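Teaching soon. Got one?

===
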Amino acid sequence: MAKKLVIIDTDCGIDDAQALMMALAAPNIQILGITCVFGNAAVENVCQNVLRVLSVCERQQIPVFKGSGVSLIGVSKPFSDHFGTDGLGDVIKDKDPQWKEKIQREHAVNAMIRLVTDNRDQVSLVALGPLTNLALAIRLDPDFPQKLKDLYIMGGNMEGIGNVTLCAEFNFDMDPESAYIVLEDFLCPTHIASWEYCCRNALTWEFFKELMNQDTPAGRFMKMITSKCWAYSKTAMRNKRDIYFGSGFVSYDAYAVAACIDASVVTENIECPVHVELQGSMARGMMALDRTNALKKSHSVFVMKKCDGAKFSQLLMKSLRQPPAE
């Protein structure tokens, strides 16, 4: 069986690292390249984080490309310390002084366009961070979305509940204009793992404990980078997620990758047009679902609603069982 060709666009924090490992462990996935974007950390840190994940999983042959360091309109926002200042919990001390030499010289957006053009109708694009690289790709090549097989996004929200502002999810809030462009102009089949979807399909902390005790390079790496991160602590101060959805382990970006690997992981979708709000002091960056097609848009997206927890758990567990322990 031919493998599914995938490009992963990431702002590699801890949950992105988990998602990357899930894709690397999937036998039906061939990653053509990993494109980096600002978000959980500065894009320079993101590049280093991706290289570290590939090294741990012994997959350094996969090309890594540096992309956008700021939002489409150039507005800089403070990086979240959700996953530490470097995106991986601030626990890695042996930084690679030669990391720049391991990044491809080609810009991430150009690489994305080239790889998709060379493999027309075959590439699934998985976006795990702000959508800046994707928005730039369609501005440089208006036919870019038509060349994609499909698009998977972790980001946005479906009930007006935000995790960084009153109404907006982090990835969309970091670059609302790019989110707007992507969801207006990308007409390929689009699947969205919203913030609420991830939270409502949280796993137990008992499973998290089992997951973090895998005696493999990937397992030990994940245990290390989550060791001091409050976002992965069940004893941390209750945040907005806990107030709305209850406590549980949520590896946000892995939900989008899981859907790309195995469509049956998603057991229920909402199919409707969506719109990203760009105005207002409270609703900017919010994704609105148009279930009655009041906006008369020409295309719909698939907003994930329910998840097969058992299948998702298996994919997460498999992600940390690589490479096998010696």
Summary: The chain has a mean pLDDT of 93. Residues 264 and 292 are 26 Å apart (CA to CA). The two ends are 29 Å apart (CA to CA).
